[in-house]
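Hi X.,

You mentioned you wanted examples for the new student's onboarding notes, showing what a folding record looks like when two proteins sit in one file. Here is a clean example. The first protein comes first, with its sequence line followed by its structure tokens.
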Amino acid sequence: MTDSSLPKTLDAWLARLEASHPTGIDLGLDRVSAVARRMGLMDAPIAERVITVAGTNGKGSTVAMLEAFSMAHGLSVACYTSPHLLRYNERLRLDGIEAEDALLMAGFKAVEQARVASPSISLTYFEVGTLGALWAIAQRRPQMAILEVGLGGRLDAVNIIDADVAVVTTVAQDHAAFLGTDINVIGREKAGIMRTQRPVVLGSDSLPPSVAEHARDIGALVHALGSDFNHDADGAGWKWQGKSASGQHMVLDALPDPKFPRDNAAAALQAFALGGVALEADNCRRALADVRLNGRMQWRGQWCLDVGHNPHAASWVAGQLGASDAHVGRTLCLLGMLGDKDAEGVIDALSPAIDAWLPVSLEGERARRAADLAEYLAERGLEVMHCADDPGSGADWLETRLEPTDRVLVTGSFLTVSAILDRWQQASSDDENVSRERDEIRNA
């Protein structure tokens, strides 16, 4: 393999990776582990501390809060997450900054050189991306690396790295084609990120029994919500109670609302403490006040974007909308979902908070048509305002019909949310170009 045969841009690399493996998802660690060994990724820790986060919902917000805690405490930190909303670069952040194209491409090159060595090994898009990100992290060896599992846990490419602290946020049904529908089986898959004699944070009090059973079977050190750590209301804020890495009881009070589920915030604090960091109360408060995550209850004017795509996530979103007692207008939902998701369950979970619906079609092999969503809605006697061919045209239709007191929830898929975010970004770019042209004319 020569450099001249390799792609010259990030977009070209990504196009090559998408076409390089016969299936998009191919669970198992044999292939990815073999390439990782060739790359030297198994020879030494990629960071001083590694926290791996698995779960059906809450992974992204937990990772975001762990990153915020790390930066507030002055630690160098790397985060690997998936999927992305607008740019692939979002998947790897170094000290809070998205990775540059050159670094991602260097990672892909390192993977490719190891992959094609005899015998050649085929890898999926996600596997190459994961190995490339781990290589980039290892080059810097930060004080903290936070890794988000893509799907499941036990057989996910992220799991080739031994976590110093594992976190399981929630377990619910999702990705049934790969993980099945038995909640205990799903729980056991997510529990696969645990390691013997290393701490694991169980971030929900309703996890299936298989999660704690697996922890006990392998001798992981369990820290469970409701028994080993907890959170309570504290005036206008909230209070966290947990344990340090040495087992010392800890309390942090007057914590601000991070606008994410409190269970996730409490689990992130517990995992961070178990990473051997001495928690500073003011640093934790500042991190929680400042943390943001695109696509999670993200507001812009009358519009709210949330990537929730299963009933568990939708139920939390509905609760957040229902908690807005001051709202007096309609709540409308622009809903776009993939064909392998539980649309009926999501609609049932959201319906108490929604007055009218606008289903939209998505593109791709797994796409679901707006007409199918409309049929589910009609069967439940729910109002369908309009059907649109795509999220953008749906948003265009809605914008001309919104009342000042209306609000719009955009949800159901990363694809739905990313389409609206891209639309906003393009509009902002166009506005900047117009402003720049006016300035040039004025100054001519």
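Then the second protein repeats the pattern, sequence line and then tokens:
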Amino acid sequence: MPDNTRRARDEAFWQTFADRYDVQPGPVNLENGYFGRMSRTVIEEYQRNIELINTSNSVYVRQQFEQRDHLDIRAQLAELIGVRAQSVAFTRNATEGLQSLIRNYNRLQPGDQVLICDLEYDTVKGAMRWLGEHRGVDVIEIAHSHPASFDSLLETYRETFVRHPKLKLMALTHVTHRTGLVMPVQAIAALAKEHGIDIILDGAHALGQIEFDLEALGVAFAGYNLHKWIGAPLTLGFMYIAPQRLADIDPDMGEMHYPVSDIRARTPYSTPNIPALMSLPLVFEEHRSIGGAPAKGARLNYLRNLWVSAVRHLPGIEVMTPDDPQLYCGITALRFSRHADQKAMADRLLNDFNLFTVVRNGAACGPCIRITPGLTTTAGDMQRLTRALNELR
């Protein structure tokens, strides 16, 4: 058994990790996909940085942070994800980066086609539809079959690419926020390349819980969060543009604070959350110290499998996410098949069993309840969920 798989089952080890976090009394949080917690040491570092910036004000920021420290932190981010520093720029979140990439992609002509599917984030769908209204392109919308498989996902895209030869750009989500389905990005990107289609990748839920080689994925444009599974303060994300493709994204609304050759010109220029950015070196150090995405992902997958394996075949419960290890992560969704109102069932999980979850709508397969364990979740919490599902089904 690999070390990460063995350690994923070690409740004593993960309790020592959980002890680094302060958690308010209340419901068991199974909605850790919204944003992650900062460790106690990161909070302390963040507070020190707030005090430093408040007292030194623009003297430090102008003389040191903007000139040197910001670039050092960006280089550390690039090292963490295995790319060149010139290919990343900080944003406030993945959505901001994705919107900028979509609206500033300059290779579209009227009559071209762009593609979205039912599982994309709503803001990404909206941005792609905006292209249709303002760039004169046709927006192609598809829905994936359910239950999904590796082959069915590829076949859907293969058929779509053939059916719509004017496709030039598509959105793709690495980990879908509705069901936790993990898209086979590298295989889809290879297909898209054969048809001359560029991908803008939504990696919001992927970074930190899935091990991947960003350059090997075969996508030129992507947006990520740092506040979900990396452990950073809120207001931190970044965009990625492959260096050889920088010219295909225009500076954001004529941004002039950086030269055209600088990726930072592709983001809105504004005063960032400097104390949060200054906290990132410690965040990266703690992420690496626990084993990074391989260790975190193994733990989250283990917790996921505890409840999924117990309820997968129970009448009245439909697990929406497949069990193919290529297609799932810690986030997984379910539906009470004998109950029409999933929101009412999520309320019962909270009111009757003190389990906090969230309902996700918008997928062609219907509304579902998303279960997202976190790094402070225990095996006992998963057993509690299993008992609740068995009673409510």
